Amino acid sequence: MSRLEELIEKARKLKEKGLTTGEIADELNVSRETAMWLLTRATAKPSDVYVELNTLTSSAFRLRRIAEILADIILDVGEPDVVVGIATSGIPLATMVAQEITSEIAVYYPKKLRWEKEEKHISGTLSENFAKIDGKSCAIVDDIMTTGSTIKEVIEYVQNKGKALCAAVIVNKTGLDEINNVPIYSLIRIERL
After folding, report:
1. Best CA proximity match to 15, nearest among 7, 4, 143
2. What is the DSSP string of 21-65?
3. Which of 37, 95, 166, 190 is 20 to 30 A from 105 in CA distance terms?
4. Is the pLDDT of residue 9 over 60?
5. What is the pLDDT of residue 97?
6. For residue range 105-141, what is the model confidence (pLDDT) as tens digits?
7. What pTM did the predictor assign?
8. CB-count burial class (<10 Å; 0-12, 13-18, 19+) for 156
9. How far apart are CA 188 and CA 120, in angstroms?
């Protein structure tokens, strides 16, 4: 079975479990459009890059080392009051980064987790069970930045309530250095030539 066939099968199984297209995209580290294509193959295959992080993210020890590196990078910009982890995959990493920095932790649920093709007016939200960001400086943390739309959504949300110092990710698939004048830092940056 080819890697593409494996992804198509993973997407199908996730859909059978009841995950939305946005949740499937998050689980597979692909764009929403790619997740939709994996499920339907109704349109031309989108241009995307699949990134497998299981070797890093399945080990708390390895994830802690990545968190230490991201924390060090964030501290070059300043010391945030709050680290905002993006659900779902960014939460464990953000928790460890917040511990390294000795900052509070907040959790953001992006609109992509509830995204379906026909739904247009969904917004993301900050969890009420974690730190508030009102008037505070924040660092945004996620595992992979695929298109930049989720990071942009979180930056805009944070800027309406506090200050976004930066965003930090393991992999940046966009090649962007900043979004809305907020710097984006990554350990790995993928550039299409």
Report:
1. 7
2. HHHHHHHHTS-HHHHHHHHH--SPPP-------HHHHT-HHHHHH
3. 190
4. yes
5. 98
6. 999 999 876 655 555 667 889 999 999 999 999 999 9
7. 0.84
8. middle
9. 32
Token readout for 89 is: 């995959």
In angstroms, the CA 49 to CA 159 distance is 30
Burial (0-12, 13-18, 19+ Cβ within 10 Å), 58: exposed
Whether the CB-CB separation of 119 and 140 falls below 8 Å is answered with no
Amino acid type, 79: E
Rounded CA gap, 131 and 27, in Å? 25
Can you tell me the distance from the alpha carbon of 65 to that of 48, in angstroms, rounded to the nearest whole number? 27
Give the total residue count for the chain: 193
Residues 77-116 as b or e (16 or more Cβ within 10 Å = b): eeebbbbbbbbbbbbbbbbbbbebbebbbbbbbbbbbebe
